[in-house]
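Threonine aldolase, Zhihengliuella salsuginis. Tokens?
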Amino acid sequence: MTATSTEVIAAARGFASDNYAGAHPEVVAAVAAANAGHVTAYGEDPYTARLQEVVAGHFGAGATAFPVFNGTGANVLSLQSLLPRWGAVVCAETAHINVDENGAPERVGGIKLLTVPTPDGKLTPELIDREAWGWGDEHRAQPLAVSITQTTELGTCYTPEEVRAIADHVHARGMRLHLDGARLSNAAAHLGVPLRAFTTDAGVDVVSLGGTKNGLLLGEAVVWLGDDDSGLKYLRKMNMQLASKMRFLSAQLIALYEGDLWLRSAAHANAMAQRLRAGVETIGGVRLTQQTQANGVFAILPDGAADRVRESFRFYDWDPATGEVRWMCSWDTTEEDIDGLVAAVEAAVA
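Tokens:
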């Protein structure tokens, strides 16, 4: 019997990215519920108004949410809101804005990125100072902002104290701080603290609030944490991130963040990553390369083993030169998925 395309798709389980997972049923239900009647377009709707209340509950009374289509758009808008045309951003070499956004900050945002190598994806005040210099020199792009990622692209997590140290350091130098929160919920689940503990309360100026990696169909939000939104209303339209039917973006974000769905989903993904780590770390020939503090596991496999595992499970090479791979868990990853991957790794290495 030939399998139908639906059966083939349903059978495939990816560990390449948490973007591979479908939308959470509660999010889909929220979209369906919002699909009733006529409401005003471009954000003048009751769903977007309610989203402002939800965001204020997480980040404080001064927080303002600007729903956008995707994470790259959120990051570019966030950085543009912090900088004049001559401004530059200090970030880690591994930052998503540097290696995964196809030059969007530079080409679309007109922003110079000043990158710093880090062993674990995390910046420190000392690392920032490698590029935070040259103010007043017209020959150098002016370092006026810093961007950090929570959790980082290497799966590591900043503590609230580490974020506060960075914020105090950069603010003392007249710079501002952006936090790329594509996996913000995973960080909160790992740390056991509210979202504002390592954003608003730690001195962050603007946040890219993740949604797609945690169960949304599509959509993120820029969350401005100060009184002045620095022109985000205009920047969003200018950068083609203004949704006419914004109620559908806002309804998804409400479904995720109004209750505890954001935390439940992230905590589950993190737990599956811990199960995966525990399963592979005892396999001879497998070497884990980073701490597992969120929903990603990084490991080096012997030559040829990754390709054998990929016959059953899709995932990415992180560093082909060393054999390092990345496995990402999602809100819908099951224990059976993890056990199947562990068995495939064990067989491939053997």
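The two ends are 33 Å apart (CA to CA).
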